[in-house]
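ARCHIVE CARD
Drawer: 12
Card no.: 0347
Subject: one protein chain, sequence and derived structure
Cross-reference: see card 0346
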Amino acid sequence: MKINSINIQNYRNIENMSLEFDDVNIIYGENAQGKTNLLEAIYLFCGAKSFRTSKDSELVRFGSEFASLEISFTNESREQNAKIVINKRRKASLNGIEKKSAFELSDEIKAVVFSPVHLSMIKDGPEMRRKFVDNALCQLKPKYKILYKEYYKTLKQRNSLLKEISAGKKYDAYIDMLSVWNEGLAKYGAKIIYQRQKYIEALTPVLCEIYEGLSSGREKISLCLSCGFDSQNLSCTEIEERLLNLINEKQKNDIITSQSSVGPHRDDINILINGNNSRSFASQGQQRSCVIALKLAEASLIDKICNSKSIILLDDVLSELDEMRQDYILNKIDDRQLFITCCDVASVLRLKNGKTFCIKKGALS
């Protein structure tokens, strides 16, 4: 998978831009000039929403009625063309044939993006770490998204019932009803925990290899799913049994708080560097390396399952990394197309092969 060229009109601060790409592409320049806008434009061809906003209206250049994006790309040795027009909503076409939605482009074009916002995966609470795993599973296993929705529907109904019981309404009848929701929460929750555990087990060896390259073997990374019990080597049925026992044990406290305290909505994924929690003990550079390695490992799993190399989009990835880690990213990630933004011109000079683009005020400088 390789994007050969892009044409952009009226997209954010970019009025008109045409670029031809190489295997490695460095987009550099000062802040707020349009570097990230270019990466964002490419990412839209994966059928995904922007990684910066949920509103398509914000993507159209101020004063313009619409934005237009067009790429030529090679997939499985076949030259193709895709176009996106953004007005009130996004319209997409592939090889001149209009698609029902822009999401359908994801069948042809796959990419993984790193943005500084993803550092919250390390710095913040467990929600972003759960989201990282869940988003990957939704891409790889379409039925997981259905399972995920069923779980949260059950969770919402159980929490609603907990509030009714806490308020003293029909206590005996509602307690009997609660057992039904306990079983439902355990049933769907066990399947989520099982899938998360399997994904982490598949991701870990790939992640370790990438992180070892980033750190030149000086540091070791590991992942561990924290769900209230050791879920490794357990069947889905065994996980369901343990989870139901925990839910029943916490039921009295859940009634008091009117919240479900046990289940995959409370799980965490522990990311460890040399055995220490990265959130508490890792430096800024190590935290950034963790997220980069996780994103690259995610891409490798997608590649393996889809039998096609994903594009890698790295926004402001080089800051706070030492030269050794920068060199790995610039020159040692093989067999896939890279797009990297940076401010530091010195970083560009370390690129051995590829193309560089200087962006100033939304134009090629």
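Annotation on reverse: The chain has a mean pLDDT of 90. The radius of gyration is 23 Å.
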